[in-house]
Amino acid sequence: MLTKAYGAHAADKPLVPMDIERRAPGAHDVQIDIAFCGICHSDLHQVRSEWSGTIYPCVPGHEIVGRVSAVGDAVTAFNVGDLVGVGCMVDSCQHCHSCEDGFEQFCENGFTGTYNAPTADAPGHTLGGYSQQIVVDDKFVLKVTHGEEQLAAVAPLLCAGITTYSPLRHWKAGPGKKVGIVGIGGLGHMGVKLAHAMGAHVVAFTTSESKRDDAKALGADEVVVSRNPEEMAAHANSFDFILDTVAASHDLDAFTALLKRDGTLTLVGVPEHAHPSPDVSALIFKRRSIAGSLIGGIAETQEMLDFCARNGIVADVELIAAEQIEGAFERMQRSDVKYRFVIDIATMAD
């Protein structure tokens, strides 16, 4: 069946309205009428072919929320009318060690991304959430228990939320822990909110003095301007964990020096150019670690959504019409958003 969408036909072409084909729901499928879809910086990278392997037409979007409009005969966990979400994955092999352990994002045979991944459906690759409707295997659909009035601000939790929640949980952020969040953007603002809700002492790092008050309003106990050597030095050897959300190449040594013995700096941003090689002596002599983390499995994503619902956590968003997507991409490149653009999919009907 045809549904309206926004996508690009080439790396140097703007996103434009298009009609795309969605499969009819199979026995284990959930059909979702999309209400809102967040705009992730990775959408921009993929559409513009800044990451290799973009397949056109490219319809991005993996921060999807909406309402179930049909279910397959074998679906028992969802009913028509349910509020649901879909994140960065719509399938995985389901039988490798990672999938069996609930870490589908590390599927050893490669998970199926919500867009730009090979699929049997027309046109041969997945098409994402910048569209009116999507059909997804029920194992990759999440329940949303926030109020419907919060739905637009829930959408970014499906990527920005789980990308920060998963490492904070894995490295046990909580009471008695000093946790740093580097970067106050789409990911970083969620990291501050989540770490604060987990009970950690939260220090936000920003390059901009103008973001000091904003970071405190998000829940940071302290704010450090990372370009100020004195402010950085005051926190040397004191952090249990630092989550680095910055997707631009930068010096990691400035942050590893702030870790306690056995502390960890975890990266979730993929830079266009590699970070400068870190000073390994700073790691060796304090048994510090530099690690990475990728979204989260389906069970952990559901856990994150439930945690956020219980604690009243949503993203700070700017709602836009579909015709404003191209302008939002341009603003996002200038970091001109607090802190996530979300598309009102109802505007595609116009």
Word description of this protein:
The chain is 23% helix and 26% strand. With 350 residues, it is of the alpha/beta class. It has two domains: 212 residues, Medium-chain alcohol dehydrogenases, catalytic domain (Quinone Oxidoreductase, Chain A, domain 1); 132 residues, Rossmann fold, CATH 3.40.50.720. Strand 11, helix 6 and strand 12 form a beta-alpha-beta unit. The model has no long low-confidence stretch (mean pLDDT 97).
Count of distinct strands? 17
Question: Averaging pLDDT over every residue, what do you get?
Answer: 97
Q: What's the Cα radius of gyration?
A: 20 Å
Reported by name, the CATH topology of the largest domain is Quinone Oxidoreductase, Chain A, domain 1
CATH class of the largest domain: Alpha Beta
The string of secondary-structure elements, in order, is EEEHEEEHEEEHHEHEHEHEHEHEHEHE
Q: Terminal Cα separation, in Å? A: 19 Å
How does CATH name the architecture of the largest domain?
Alpha-Beta Complex
Structural class: alpha/beta
Query: Could you tell me the strand content as a percent range?
Result: 25-35%
